[in-house]
Amino acid sequence: MAAGSAIQIPTRLPLLLTHESVLLPGSTMRTSVDSPRNMQLVRSRLLKGTSLRSTIIGVIPNTSDPTSDCDDLPNLHRIGTAALAVQVVGSNWPKPHYTLLVTGLCRFQILQLLKEKPYPVAEVQQLDRLEQFTNGHKSEEELGELSEQFYKYAVQLVEMLDMSVPAVAKLRRLLDNLPREALPDILTSIIRTTNQEKLQILDAVRLEERFKMTIPLLVRQIEGLKLLQKTRKSKQDDDKRVVAIRPNRRISHGSITEDEEEEEDHDDVVMLEKKIRTSSMSEQALKVCLKEIKRLKKMPQSMPEYALTRNYLELMVELPWNKSTKDRLEIRAARIVLDNDHYAMEKLKKRVLEYLAVRQLKNNLKGPILCFVGPPGVGKTSVGRSIAKTLGREFHRIALGGACDQSDIRGHRRTYVGSMPGRIINGLKTVGVNNPVFLLDEVDKLAKSLQGDPAAALLEVLDPEQNHSFTDHYLNVAFDLSQVLFIATANTTATIPPALLDRMEVIQVPGYTQEEKIEIAHRHLIPKQLELHGLTPQQIQIPQVTTLGIITRYTREAGVRALDRKLGAICRAVAVKVAEGQHKEAKPDRAELGEGEDCKEHVTEDAKPESISDTADLALPPEMPILIDFHALKDILGPPMYDMEVSERLNQPGVAIGLAWTPLGGEIMFVEASRMEGEGQLTLTGQLGDVMKESAHLAISWLRSNARRYQLTNASGSFDLLDNTDIHLHFPAGAVTKDGPSAGVTIVTCLASLFSGRLVCSDVAMTGEITLRGLVLPVGGIKDKVLAAHRAGLKRIILPQRNEKDLEEIAAPVRQELSFVLAACLDEVLNAAFDGGFAVKASLEHLNSKL
Ligand code: ADP
C-alpha cells in the first residue's frame, strides 16, 4: 500500500470522475462506472494497458450535478487522489457498466487539463510525498502533540469495538505500525463521515490542517458509540458489534445484518406460531402446522426447505377456515337483481330462482351443481356473478379451459420444487371467505394429459357428499368446501366427461333472437359502453334500426359478445369526435346544417351527409347527439361483413341449405352437389365426420332406390343414378369439422335437385336425420337452428315431425315470421323444398307396371 511504496506517480494522469464517493489515500473503494467518459477510460486505459503505470489513474470527486456528466466536462475539482486500479469487473445488466476496485495512493493537484475526449487527461503534481512515510519520525516530531492526540483518540475508538472481530484486531495493530501521517486519511474513510467532510479532508493538503480537521470527526464518532452503548446497555455485546468502521464493515456489518435478520426472523416465526394458534383452522390442520413450525424453528434459514415450509404455514394461516360472509337471501330481491341485470333468458332465471328458494328454505347446499350450457356471449358468466350478488357472497371465476393436469385442481405435493396449491384452494385464499360462489368456467374444455385427468379431480370437488373433506395435495389436510356454491359453464355437454356431467344439473342457455338482442343492446350493452367511454346519451344516439343493422350485417352469433364489441367500436369513434368537437370552434353556417340533420328521425340509406366524418367536420357542440346511421356504421365498422342474401347461392340445381348445431350456436350450412362422368364414385369434401359421411351414403342409396318413382335420371337418362356417373358432395366452410346425422334431409334434397335439374326454394332451410326407408327422424338443437335460419333471413323451415314440441321454446315473434313444415318422411321434405312440390310420378309408374 502507500506506506511501503516509494513510487512516483506519473505527471500525466487519466481522470476518473466519481459521483457517489470520495477516495482518500490509503483506503480502498469499489465504484461503479457507467458514464461514457469513464467507460472509455476503463476500456482504453485499464483493460488495454499492460504496465503497472497504466493502472494508475486520478480519481477526482465530481462535485457537479451528475446529470450533466454526459455533456461537456464539468468544472473539475482541483485536488484528487492518484489510485491504483486493482480490479475491473464488467457487466451488461441492467445496463453496460464496470465495477472498479481502486486503492488510493496519494493526493495530486491538477495543473492543466491536456485533453477532454474521449476521457480527460491532465498534467498533475503529486502533493503527498510517499517516501516521507517510510522515514516518518521526522514529521512525527514536527507535528508532535497533534499527532499524539490523534493517535490516542484513534486507539480509544478502536478499543470500543469488538476486538474478537479479526478485522478490528488488525486495525488496532495497524494503528501502531502505520506512520502517523497516514492515519487521518485512513480513519476518515473508515468512520462515519459525509462526502462533504471527506472532501474537506482531501482538500486539506497540509498535514497539520488534516489532523486538526479529523480529530473532531473522531470525537464525534466516539461520542456516538458511547451513546449507543448507553442506550443498549442491556445488550452490551451487541453494541460492540454496531460499528461504523469501514474496513470491518463487510464483516461486522454482515454480522449485524445476519444477526438482526435472524432475530427478525425469529420474531416472525414466533408471530407465525401465534397466528397459527389463534387461527380457527381445523384440529387436524393445527396439529400439522404445529409440527411444521417446530421443524421450522430448528431449520437453518439457508435451507431451501425453510422457505417452502414457511410459505406453507403462511398459506395455512391465510386460508379462510372459518371465515364466511353472511348470506342475505331474499327471493324477491334476487328476482329483481336477476331481472335488472339480464333481459330475457326466462327459463334460466326461473331455474336459478327455484334453486335459490330451495336454499333459503333448506339452508344447506347439498343440491345439484348448476351447469349453464350455451353458446358464448349469452350471459352465463354474468348470471353467475348476479347470483353471487343476490346472495351477498364473494365471486370467483376459475377458468378451466385447457387445464390438463390434475394438480391444476388439486395442487402439487410439497415435495416438488415450485409446488403450489390447486386453483380451488388458491381461489379461497384470494376471496378470503369459505363460502364464495365459484364459477367453473368452460368445464367442457378440460383436457387430459399424462399428468392425470383434471375432470376426475373435479369430481371430488363437486360431489356434495365428499367435498366437506377435500384434500389438496399441497395442503395435505382436509378443507371443507361444502359451503362453496359451485356453478359450472360450458358450451356443449358433448365433451363434458359423463361422470362429471352426472353430478351437475344442466340448464340450457340458448342464443337470442334478433329482437332480444336489440333489447339487450339498448337496455344493457349501450348504457354500459357509454359509461365505459365517458359518453352521455346527449352525445350519441344509436337508433334501433342501427342496432338491427349491426346485428344482421356485422355479427353472426348466438350471443351478444360481438355485438358488444361493435358497440364499443362505435363509442370509441364517437368519443374521438366529441373530444375533437369540444376543442373546435363551431362554425355557424355548418352548425345550422348540423341542426337540420338532428331533426331527422330516421335516416334512409340515401341520405348521405350524416356520416360520422361529416358530423365531426361540423365541430358539433357536445349537446347535440351524434346519430349513428348506416353511413356512420359503414364509416366506423367498414363494409358489412355478412350478406342477408342467401338466394344467390341457390340459383343452380344441386344446392340446398341445411341447419347445423355447433357449440357456438346454430348455423346455416350450404350443401352443394355436382355430377360428372365416372365410375359411380362418391366424393365428399368439407371436413366431415363419420356420421355425416354415413348420411351421405344413406341419401344416395335412398335416391337410387327411389329414382324411378321420382323420375330422376343421370346424364345418360338411366335411372341408375351412379351409372357412368361420379357424384361430388361438398359442404363449404371446410375448416370446421362437421358431424352429426341432421344433414340427411339436406343431402337428399340437394341430390334430388341435382338429378331433377330443379332449383330448391331459396328461402327454405331444413334439418333432420333420415333412414334407409325414407323416414325423417328427430334431431337436437332445434331452437338454435331455427334462430340461425331466422338470422339468415330464411322463411320456411323443414323439421322432423317429432321435433314439433321443440317449437314451443321459440319466441312468438320469431315463430310468426317463419313457416314450419313438419315432415315425417322424405316425400314431404321434397314436396316442401321445391316450388310446386316434388311430385311422385305415380301415374307413369302405374302405367309402366300395367304394360
Ligand atoms: P358467456 O359467459 O355466456 O360467454 P358473458 O356472461 O361473458 O357470456 O356475457 C357477455 C356479455 O353479454 C356480458 O357483458 C353480459 O353482461 C352481456 N349479456 C349477455 N346476455 C345478457 C342479457 N340477457 N342481458 C344483459 N346482458 C347480457
UniProtKB/TrEMBL annotation:
<dbReference type="Pfam" id="PF02190">
    <property type="entry name" value="LON_substr_bdg"/>
</dbReference>
<dbReference type="InterPro" id="IPR027065">
    <property type="entry name" value="Lon_Prtase"/>
</dbReference>
<dbReference type="InterPro" id="IPR027417">
    <property type="entry name" value="P-loop_NTPase"/>
</dbReference>
<dbReference type="GO" id="GO:0005782">
    <property type="term" value="C:peroxisomal matrix"/>
</dbReference>
<dbReference type="InterPro" id="IPR008269">
    <property type="entry name" value="Lon_proteolytic"/>
</dbReference>
<dbReference type="Pfam" id="PF00004">
    <property type="entry name" value="AAA"/>
</dbReference>
<dbReference type="GO" id="GO:0004176">
    <property type="term" value="F:ATP-dependent peptidase activity"/>
</dbReference>
<keyword id="KW-0007">Acetylation</keyword>
<dbReference type="InterPro" id="IPR008268">
    <property type="entry name" value="Peptidase_S16_AS"/>
</dbReference>
<dbReference type="GO" id="GO:0005524">
    <property type="term" value="F:ATP binding"/>
</dbReference>
<keyword id="KW-0547">Nucleotide-binding</keyword>
<feature type="region of interest" description="Disordered">
    <location>
        <begin position="584"/>
        <end position="611"/>
    </location>
</feature>
<comment type="subunit">
    <text>Interacts with PEX5. Interacts with TYSND1. May interact with enzymes involved in beta-oxidation of fatty acids, including ACOX1/AOX.</text>
</comment>
<dbReference type="GO" id="GO:0006515">
    <property type="term" value="P:protein quality control for misfolded or incompletely synthesized proteins"/>
</dbReference>
<feature type="domain" description="Lon proteolytic">
    <location>
        <begin position="650"/>
        <end position="836"/>
    </location>
</feature>
<keyword id="KW-0720">Serine protease</keyword>
<dbReference type="InterPro" id="IPR027501">
    <property type="entry name" value="Lonp2_euk"/>
</dbReference>
<dbReference type="InterPro" id="IPR020568">
    <property type="entry name" value="Ribosomal_Su5_D2-typ_SF"/>
</dbReference>
<keyword id="KW-0067">ATP-binding</keyword>
<dbReference type="GO" id="GO:0016887">
    <property type="term" value="F:ATP hydrolysis activity"/>
</dbReference>
<dbReference type="InterPro" id="IPR003111">
    <property type="entry name" value="Lon_prtase_N"/>
</dbReference>
<feature type="active site">
    <location>
        <position position="785"/>
    </location>
</feature>
<dbReference type="Pfam" id="PF22667">
    <property type="entry name" value="Lon_lid"/>
</dbReference>
<dbReference type="InterPro" id="IPR014721">
    <property type="entry name" value="Ribsml_uS5_D2-typ_fold_subgr"/>
</dbReference>
<feature type="active site">
    <location>
        <position position="742"/>
    </location>
</feature>
<keyword id="KW-0576">Peroxisome</keyword>
<dbReference type="InterPro" id="IPR046336">
    <property type="entry name" value="Lon_prtase_N_sf"/>
</dbReference>
<dbReference type="InterPro" id="IPR003593">
    <property type="entry name" value="AAA+_ATPase"/>
</dbReference>
<keyword id="KW-0378">Hydrolase</keyword>
<dbReference type="InterPro" id="IPR054594">
    <property type="entry name" value="Lon_lid"/>
</dbReference>
<dbReference type="InterPro" id="IPR004815">
    <property type="entry name" value="Lon_bac/euk-typ"/>
</dbReference>
<feature type="domain" description="Lon N-terminal">
    <location>
        <begin position="13"/>
        <end position="222"/>
    </location>
</feature>
<dbReference type="Pfam" id="PF05362">
    <property type="entry name" value="Lon_C"/>
</dbReference>
<dbReference type="InterPro" id="IPR003959">
    <property type="entry name" value="ATPase_AAA_core"/>
</dbReference>
<keyword id="KW-0645">Protease</keyword>
<feature type="binding site">
    <location>
        <begin position="374"/>
        <end position="381"/>
    </location>
    <ligand>
        <name>ATP</name>
    </ligand>
</feature>
<protein>
    <recommendedName>
        <fullName>Lon protease homolog</fullName>
        <ecNumber>3.4.21.-</ecNumber>
    </recommendedName>
</protein>
<comment type="similarity">
    <text>Belongs to the peptidase S16 family.</text>
</comment>
<dbReference type="InterPro" id="IPR015947">
    <property type="entry name" value="PUA-like_sf"/>
</dbReference>
<dbReference type="GO" id="GO:0004252">
    <property type="term" value="F:serine-type endopeptidase activity"/>
</dbReference>
